[in-house]
Task: structure prediction
Amino acid sequence: MTTIVAKHGNFPSNVTANNEWAPLRSVIIGRADNSCFPYEAPHMIEATMPPRFHEAFKPANPFPPEIVRGAEEELGNFALLLQSQGVNVFRPAKVDWLQTGGYTGAMPRDGLLVVGNTIIESCFAWKCRVDEVANSLGNLLSKLGANPSVKVVRAPRPPSPDTLYNGILEDPGSHEWAINNSRPAFDAADFMRFGSTIIGQLSNVTNMKGVEYIQLHVPSGYKIELLDVNDPHAMHIDATLLPLRQGLMVYNPLRVTEESLRRHAAFKDWELVSYPFVKSVQAVEEATGGVPRFMTSAWLVMNVLVLGHDKIVVEEQDHEFVKWLEGRGMEVLKAPFRNVHAIGGSFHCASVDLVRS
Ligand code: ABU
Result:
């Protein structure tokens, strides 16, 4: 693949996103350069990462160079694809994550939650991610925040020493999650917009104080509701729910039930469809040329980006899902993304909607 660099977008006159499916006008697309494996206390790695790769989650361990190169090409291609669809695209700054001790700029969805005109920076649980947004997106946030119609909420620094593991390190079996509730912690990817309702989950990186912190900062009229999710390894909701359009959502049948979804008024009258093709992660890796999924499950197939007007971007190898979506009246744009998958996410993780209108 030849790399053609996407032109940086013109600064949007506003920021506004109220759902995951209205026409996408302006977006941030991540950058993979210099990505390194993130690292944390062993109990967090055990709670969230695939066992066969646990050894890799240590400081100063870059992802294999061919994967980083491939991922950067795929992200550049994704950016160009969106520009060809009339979407204004912004890219993070290039950061030497080995030198900063950080992870990546490829997964901006984890770090920024956009609700209405408000951009909320995540209070990351993982210490190696605390400066991720400042380093890769700090300039963009400053420029966006200079617009009086846009509200940017930067994250407070965590206490030093951090208290999130107090009581857990001493007795790992004593808590449901890998973190306690001693200070706000959340990854933005544990939340999804459904109009004035934000559906979220508690997870190994998101606690109740994190949920309360978001509720405090969203514009008035928005309410967070927590979904009952059956997943002890929970970390991000965007391979669990996939709204395709107003009134139609695919859900992960191993993590949520239709009954639990129906408890939320936001899904009243929605058609809720259980994802039909369950596969092992090994089968997925074989089908995509053996590129390892260091950080994710086979459910990453659901982590796609809806562009609005029933258009969607899907990995080019996900043939069954493409056919299924086309059968549902979606126009599917196929793009290669298997190397980005190795780094930790797919099209939804690798993007942040700034304007959906
Ligand atoms: N952030 C993507 C989550 C992927 C997974 O559940 O495997």
